[in-house]
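Submission sheet (multi-component)
Chains listed below:
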Amino acid sequence: MTHPSREIRRVLAIDPTSRGFGFAVLEGPENLIDYGTRGCPTTAPEVCLKRVEELLDIFHLDLVVLEDTDHEDSKRTPRIRKLLDDMELLVASRGVKTRRVPTGRIKKHFGARNKYQVAVKVAGQFAQLAPRLPAPLKSWDKEPERMAIFTAVARGLAVFQHGGPSVV
Amino acid sequence: MARKLDNYLKTHRKRSGLHQHEVAYLLGTKDGTRVGRYELSIREPTVRTVFALEVIFNVPAKELFAGIYGKVETQTRKRAAKLFERVGARHQDKAVAHKLASLRVICNKSHKES
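Outcome: structure written.
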């Protein structure tokens, strides 16, 4: 039997932020097709969903990967949890499969202790992302929006490496 | 499994670190909006532009426009199969035999690849 992760081709991974979301589209673990951030007002989640819909229209996806907010390591606010649930419903309504990946699994996959270490490893794997890697954060620094791109890429990669039975 | 995207221009542009307006300059056009239209498949580039894009990204056109290439290839091979049947039904001479051999190569390729 073919491993489920080998049957997936084009994957969209999304990482919401307080002001929008970062996304990455991968065709297999080595081909980063597109990436970026999309801004949406915190008071209008429908704008966020519209942005996701635009990505679904462009990329004809096999799978959308979102954060598993039910996992104990998730520290997401109720607003983001609701947004992720709405995204899942939207994606399912378009006939595309979804997969939830906990943040802890990403760190484990990359052998990293924090988000920044994950970002460094992702930038090492995809040279085009290296110039966008932010400087290491101080505890008082605000996390740059573009950090969500690295988390999204990492989430997508984690699916290719640890495809579970719920993928197909 | 999802089919190939119509084009991978944005992928290769981002890989090369170029902005749309810079690619537009290399293509000899004034602004980046045209490049954006190519990327979103709203507009199809001319043959000259396709070759220029091949030079810019150093990627063959059939890979840059993988989805379009796939569609054109399938349609062409289907037409070749039809033409093969049509020509084969006619009186056979040397010229016709040569033509059939050429068409067979096109059709066989499609069988092998599928």
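Remark: The CA atoms of residues 16 and 57 of chain B lie 7 Å apart.
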